Amino acid sequence: MAVILAPFLWLFITSIAGQTDQLSRPLHWIPEHMTLSRYREIFGGRSGAASLFRSAMVNSFIVATCTVLVSLTVGILGGYALARLRFPFRRATLLSFLVTYMMPPIVLIIPLYLIMVRLGLYNTKVGLVVVYCSLVTPFALWTMSNFFGSLPAELEEAARVDGCSRMGALVRIILPLARPGIVATALFAFLLCWDEFLYALLLTGTSQAKTIPVAIAEFTGRNAVDFGLVAAGGILASLPPVALTMVFQRYLIEGLSAGAVKG
């Protein structure tokens, strides 16, 4: 726990430490001059970097949420079909999605850039959602198909004997049992979109669509770097994922057993 939390603690200390404390040698954990000016600048400043960061937080939340909703819907329906239905090339289809997910992002950036420009989606949140869905959906399909495959098919068959359709059995029986997998997949997909930097940097040009990683990178000046401002942006950027994880943590632990009892 100390190894994991120490970098975050140092990030917070850097965000409130004065400029002289950051450059002092040796470094010390408790700064002599503490200030919240960087947080005030981010939330209330009218400079280009501060206003960009505020709009970037909104853009990141919109893009990540839309991507999770689309990818999770496709992942649940497609993963269920790949796990329960038998059709030609089923295994090859699943492996093709995995190969797509394993491709390095830098390989796809030129064709994706050209496609976004020709479709008029460059520097738009819709364009980022489309690109992120192409990256997150294969992961959602793979994880959900494996999770659905681990669930007993007898419960679903019993529901269909009682009169449920296949979709009804999916909604009433399978989804409650698959809640841990759904939550874990949604959280990981959200983090993939929230932290992604390369595509957001190259496919956006203004504050209309720039996301948090790009906004933090623009805190770096041409001749100087305000490490305190970068650290403050990093702290603020980490709060939404941490909050989501804390809120949905109990579903990761209790979802499977609770769903099995209710089923």
Q: What does this entry look like structurally?
A:
This protein is mostly helical and 263 residues long. It contains 13 helices and no strands. It has helices at 2-16, 19-23, 37-44, 48-84, 90-102, 105-118, 125-150, 153-161, 166-177, 179-195, 198-202, 212-217, 227-262. Helix 4 runs parallel beside helix 7 (125-150), helix 5 (90-102) crosses helix 7 and helix 7 (125-150) runs antiparallel to helix 10. The model is unreliable at 255-263 (pLDDT under 50).
Task: Estimate the mean pLDDT confidence.
Answer: 84
User: Span from first to last CA?
Assistant: 37 Å
User: How many strand units?
Assistant: 0
Tally of contiguous helical segments: 13
Strand percent estimate: under 5%
Shape: elongated
Q: What structural class do the secondary elements suggest?
A: mainly alpha
Main beta-sheet strand count, sense and barrel state: none
Low-confidence stretches: 255-263
Helical amount: over 70%
